[in-house]
Design a protein that fits this description.
Elements: H1 18-36, E1 41-42, E2 46-47, H2 51-64, H3 74-89
Antiparallel strand pairs: 1-2
């Protein structure tokens, strides 16, 4: 028999925790149901008409419930910093 590899004890903050996944799934399910039936409201007054806004509300509610979800620009910012720093190092001489 092959020996099983031990998984690392550190968990990433991307929602890989089973409880976080369950929380996100339940909140998104509830939010999208409300959106599809015209019951979802933004700020308590206006009905949400944009599906992207409904997704954002669902993720926000999941974060408030304790799910570990990274913010939208977390990956983009680190990639942008790496690419911009490499562009600066290659300057032209006249």
């Amino acid at each position: 028999m092959a020996a099983k590899k031990k998984s690392s004890s550190k968990r990433s903050s991307s929602g890989s925790d089973p409880k976080s996944k369950r929380t996100v799934k339940n909140k998104m399910k509830k939010t999208m149901h409300e959106y599809k039936h015209g019951e979802l409201k933004s700020g308590g007054r206006k009905k949400v008409k944009n599906p992207k806004q409904a997704i954002a509300i669902g993720l926000s509610e999941a974060r408030q419930a304790g799910a570990k979800i990274p913010k939208k620009g977390a990956k983009k910012k680190s990639a942008a910093k790496k690419s911009s720093s490499s562009k600066k190092s290659f300057s032209r001489k006249k």
